Amino acid sequence: MANSRTGLHAEPGSFRDPANRVFHLDGDVLRGLDEQAAGEWRALSASAFFPPLIAAGKVCGTEAVESPAVPSVDRWAAVLRHERIPFVSHPYEWSFAMLRDAALLHLEILRAALPAGFTTKDGSAYNLQWRGVEPVFIDVGSFTPAREGEPWAGYRQFCQTLLYPLLLGAHLGLDFQPWLRARVDGIEPDQMRRLFGGARRLLPGVPTHVHLHDAMQRHNARASTTDVRSQLRAAGYSRELALATVRGIEKLVRRLEPRPAASHWVDYQRTCAYTADDRAAKERFVTDALAAGPRPRLALDLGANDGRYARLAARHADYVVAVEQDPGVVDGLYRDLRAAGERRILPLVMDLADPSPGGGWRGVERASFADRADADAILALAVVHHLAIGRNVPLPEVLDWLVGLAAPGARLVVEFVHPGDPMARRLLANKPEGLFPDYRPAEFERLLAARCRITRRLDLPSGTRTLYAAVVGG
Fold this sequence. Notes:
This is Methyltransferase domain-containing protein. By secondary structure, the protein is of the alpha+beta class. It has 18 helices and 17 strands. 39% of the residues lie in helices and 19% in strands. The strands form four sheets. A seven-stranded mixed sheet has the order 13-12-11-14-15-17-16, with helices on both faces. A six-stranded antiparallel sheet has the order 1-2-3-4-6-5.
């Protein structure tokens, strides 16, 4: 739904709960509430537990506002305005520690809500976002009064989008990102059951949250939700038992750690071909390029590795998204940034040759990376050769993709690694001879100049790498 006159449009990912809907209007994030949801909001905002969560930044900033021009305004009894998250990411773009911290925040909030008479309708990982490396709960419409004798309605979603991916990483050493990207609703219990047979069925968390969960789901497959709730109430299920269950899941999640995996990229900064002079010249060039012109609102560091240049970019930009393919590298970067209390750098796991597409209902419920980017500055350092040679992406398409991530007038800092560079030679050694006749400095510069206005260029002292600063559409 869009409104060209007012700039109003509905959030494509907000439609599953008919009691409330999120809209965007001229930079504001608004939520319309129906009569029942408006009453629950008033009770929630007056509760003892909720305002401290907002004050601590654990729940996104929210306030009631006078109804602006929201579609079907007669349907909404109240309208809320939320703080805007700097960059929306998806759980399959997070590292293990990021997903675990998001899960722990969700459980902490639920643990605070239950004694106050509230619960959450769902337990999806998509209810959380990030301010840098600080998780924040964004689905205020998910809070609802808890009813005695009823289980946590979000338990299944929590398992499928948070707990099960963590179990895959901790117990099997599997990267969970492809599993979450494949299905917006996460991993089903019956899939997990097949993976955790034999001795694996006794691993922490598996007997209760995989096998028992799957058995109960199959047992109640023909029963209605009302029937299940009645059975639980008759069995003596209470709010205290629900709280004890949440505490038990929280204890389990805290103990989960990823299995270490061998990775070339973990030691890349130590083993790559840069000399000390190259590195110093490169850092000066990047600093000068970012400092020229207005301060970027959003900067992307593509192929961020250990975050050296993302940290540099954070000195000159309001917010930096650091994208790296290796989940272990991103996990290390996240832990370092978390220890430093960094709130302006968001590390994400993503293969740049296979970036996050649109997903969910009609392919737009979860926006693609390209649709979310719209960056004011882009660092593409030591990444072009990996796409052009390593993944056989034609040079013109590499540059088209980079330009497509940028807002008009954005600054682009891109590094071209010459064919004679040790890293390029290593990649070329695995390819048929003569496969990349156009992979040459002069051709790259011609292609870049056709898409951007080149403002500076620098050959690094080693002589095998060239840096370019350019303005997109300039």
